[in-house]
């Protein structure tokens, strides 16, 4: 197989056309500044931002996870109605499809909205409308993963899980995000046990470079018994963890995203870790995380940047896409169909 230079336009065309699944993206974090301003105006919300560039300037204040989450929660406060959730999701589905995504499992954070008085009916109603509309009008298939916030109580997560029973068909699994706190992941064991009993699939964030990260990864595997770990780059810190993740066929949904503020070495480290995980034979995929609030870089953009930064070959990029389908929560029939699409694309050279 001929491998073009990472700067070759041929590679750009190949990456953007290559079928892929998106497994680690927060629907709230896909909100572009322009859409934020439109939603705020529709809801009669006064903002301090004169235009989209002013919103981007605000996003430049994010330099780590806590500072980003503070801005993130400020901006998503504009989301109020089922229409807002529908518009948010449809904008993402169209953009993702333009970069070769054919299937997505999308996080949403109901607690962030319930705390603002937004009812579950509005959240699920808007997301369901977008899911159905995307499949009917775009041929784009999506499913949702309900995430709970690690810096809130497990009791609250359990209540939301139970209150969401009327909309059980609208989410395929559960996850955990927001800052890692004392007690993670053990404090969520009962929540995950109940979700498992409901037939839900299981994942959790283990963010990059956090305190006690190796112990948190082991807890995700042995206490929460997850099928995937979101991020998961610190698996590389423990040879035994590498072996366990490989043997258990745990998916790692890595995200080499970039804040608006340049952080030296961030892409080099994250893309390099993804390359190492591939070389260890682990089921790592590359994902976009919060693209609307992080430089408008979507999955194809990030694949190309990673390739240029650390020399990912075309074969490696294809393997990342293959891993996304292998670790997606698909039926065997669906998975085989997507893998066949990928094989056809790879053989044709895009």
UniProtKB/TrEMBL annotation:
<comment type="similarity">
    <text>Belongs to the metallo-dependent hydrolases superfamily. Adenosine and AMP deaminases family.</text>
</comment>
<dbReference type="InterPro" id="IPR006650">
    <property type="entry name" value="A/AMP_deam_AS"/>
</dbReference>
<dbReference type="GO" id="GO:0046872">
    <property type="term" value="F:metal ion binding"/>
</dbReference>
<dbReference type="InterPro" id="IPR006330">
    <property type="entry name" value="Ado/ade_deaminase"/>
</dbReference>
<dbReference type="GO" id="GO:0043103">
    <property type="term" value="P:hypoxanthine salvage"/>
</dbReference>
<dbReference type="GO" id="GO:0006146">
    <property type="term" value="P:adenine catabolic process"/>
</dbReference>
<keyword id="KW-0479">Metal-binding</keyword>
<protein>
    <submittedName>
        <fullName>Adenosine deaminase</fullName>
        <ecNumber>3.5.4.4</ecNumber>
    </submittedName>
</protein>
<dbReference type="InterPro" id="IPR032466">
    <property type="entry name" value="Metal_Hydrolase"/>
</dbReference>
<dbReference type="GO" id="GO:0005829">
    <property type="term" value="C:cytosol"/>
</dbReference>
<feature type="domain" description="Adenosine deaminase">
    <location>
        <begin position="19"/>
        <end position="342"/>
    </location>
</feature>
<dbReference type="GO" id="GO:0000034">
    <property type="term" value="F:adenine deaminase activity"/>
</dbReference>
<dbReference type="GO" id="GO:0009168">
    <property type="term" value="P:purine ribonucleoside monophosphate biosynthetic process"/>
</dbReference>
<dbReference type="Pfam" id="PF00962">
    <property type="entry name" value="A_deaminase"/>
</dbReference>
<dbReference type="InterPro" id="IPR001365">
    <property type="entry name" value="A_deaminase_dom"/>
</dbReference>
<keyword id="KW-0862">Zinc</keyword>
<keyword id="KW-0378">Hydrolase</keyword>
């Amino acid at each position: 197989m001929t491998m073009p230079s990472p700067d070759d336009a041929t590679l750009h065309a190949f990456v953007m056309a290559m079928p892929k699944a998106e497994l680690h993206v927060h629907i709230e974090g896909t909100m572009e500044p322009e859409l934020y301003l439109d939603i705020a105006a529709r809801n009669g919300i006064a903002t301090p931002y004169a235009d989209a560039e002013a919103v981007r300037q605000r996003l430049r204040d994010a330099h780590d996870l806590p500072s980003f989450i503070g801005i993130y929660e400020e901006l998503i406060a504009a989301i109020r109605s089922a229409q807002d959730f529908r518009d948010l999701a449809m904008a993402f589905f169209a953009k993702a499809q333009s970069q070769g995504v054919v299937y997505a499992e999308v996080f949403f954070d109901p607690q962030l909205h319930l705390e603002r008085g937004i009812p579950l009916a509005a959240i699920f109603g808007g997301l369901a409308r977008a899911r159905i509309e995307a499949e009917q009008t775009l041929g784009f298939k999506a499913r949702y993963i309900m995430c709970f916030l690690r810096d809130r109580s497990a009791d609250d997560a359990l209540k939301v899980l139970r209150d969401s029973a009327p909309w059980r068909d609208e989410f395929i699994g559960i996850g955990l995000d927001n800052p890692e706190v004392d007690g993670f992941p053990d404090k969520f064991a009962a929540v995950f046990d109940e979700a498992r009993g409901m037939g839900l699939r299981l994942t959790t964030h283990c963010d990059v470079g956090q305190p006690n990260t190796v112990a948190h990864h082991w807890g995700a595997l042995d206490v929460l018994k997850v099928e995937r770990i979101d991020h998961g780059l610190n698996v590389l810190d423990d040879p035994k963890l590498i072996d366990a993740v490989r043997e258990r066929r745990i998916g790692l949904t890595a995200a080499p995203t970039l804040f608006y503020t340049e952080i030296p070495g961030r892409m080099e480290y994250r893309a390099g870790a993804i390359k190492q995980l591939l070389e260890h034979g682990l089921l790592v995929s590359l994902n976009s995380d919060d693209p609307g609030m992080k430089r408008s870089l979507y999955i194809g953009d990030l694949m190309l940047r990673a390739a240029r930064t650390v020399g990912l070959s075309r074969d490696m990029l294809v393997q990342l896409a293959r891993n996304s389908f292998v670790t997606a929560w698909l039926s065997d029939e669906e998975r085989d169909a997507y893998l066949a699409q990928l094989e056809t694309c790879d053989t044709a050279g895009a």
